Amino acid sequence: MFNFIRPKSQQVSKFPHNVSTSRSKARKAYFNAPSSVRRTILSAPLSKELREQYKIKALPIRKEDKVLIVRGSKKGQEGTISSVYRLKYSIQLEKLTKEKSNGASVPLNIHPSKVVITKLHLDKDRKALIERKGGVAA
After folding, report:
1. Which SS3 state, helix, strand or coil, does residue 35 take?
2. What pLDDT is recorded for position 17?
3. Distance between CA atoms of residues 109 and 92, nearest Å
4. How many CB atoms lie within 10 A of CB 52?
5. Predicted model pTM
């Protein structure tokens, strides 16, 4: 084989040309993402039982899902999601609060990547999403 150098216009890249590898651009895209994109960023993995049942690995998290915390100081605690806070990229669980110095309790914010979904809140839209992802909606 001939070993020649291609001109710049014909060089082959390992990465797609339309995706930037710049850290600053990635951070800008993350923090300026619209709510529709934040929904997919706020996805959580499914538990092993749900993974076998639905044949998919992860789903965007949603209110009324039951989750188990698997990372951080609150590891091992379970709860139901009371709100998905897209602006802060976090979720809040029903009985997971912190006492303030004045006695008031405030909900703790947790990133969905640090939890595992143990029970799904299913409706027709959620079932359709599972089917679109190639899973089996029961």
Report:
1. helix
2. 74
3. 5
4. 10
5. 0.80
